[in-house]
Amino acid sequence: PTLKMTKSNLIFRQLFDKDTSTYTYLLGCAETKAAIIIDPVLECVERDLKLVNELGLNLIYGVNTHVHADHVTGTGQIKKTLPNCKSVLGANSGGKADLYLKDGDKLSFGNLTMESRSTPGHTDGCSTYILHDQRVVFTGDALLIRGCGRTDFQQGCAKTLYNSVHSKIFSLPSDYKLYPAHDYKGMSVTTVGEEKLYNPRLTKTVDEFVQIMDNLNLAYPKRIDVSVPANLVCGIQD
Ligand SMILES: N[C@@H](CCC(=O)N[C@@H](CSS)C(=O)NCC(=O)O)C(=O)O
Ligand SMILES: [Fe+2]
To answer: Which of 19, 150, 154, 227 to mutate to test the pocket of ligand 1 (most atoms within 8 A of CB)?
Structure first.
């Protein structure tokens, strides 16, 4: 039998901010060097732009999965350094951005295409981004590894989140890799198949899920009062 090797044209870097346990993803087209960054953190912008430079990438979009409550986005700061880089946000987020994506919209960079799916529930504007050819998905806080985003502030709604994850993420092929916006347990990646089997919240019925989410009793994120207003204006307040 012959083994068919396919060369991936995706440049992929998962970056981590220890202070807020946030993952940032740098994605680039190997052929054209066009690149995007998903969920950059303000305090890590220098690190991230150094990497962009070292890899010879041309950063054209700074994308957020949602209006974050726990850290200030780096997109506004990135735009100051790279004026050709446009900020991107979900259409229902209520935040300021250069470009808004609604359910089903596609964003292209170089020879790569990313689909945006609206996955509300953690916030109204939460988006999940999918590169079908590469079989990778960026779930933001809608789906975390063996967990999910909380639903007790911003426009949180457990039932909505449950429906979003089941209809827009669990409907994808089971081998698709899922990359969340945070991890608090030292995990870095999961798959659709794994979460459908082992997610302790989302494998339950919708009523059980709502019960679980109503009783998480989590402390509010330490930086919520600074982060939400800042992120509504791309991280930079005039
Ligand atoms: N302790 C952290 C905040 C932790 C937190 O609330 N995380 C959010 C995602 S950031 S909006 C969440 O949805 N967590 C779900 C969970 O089950 O942990 C801080 O102070 O920043
Ligand atoms: Fe969040």
So the answer is: 150
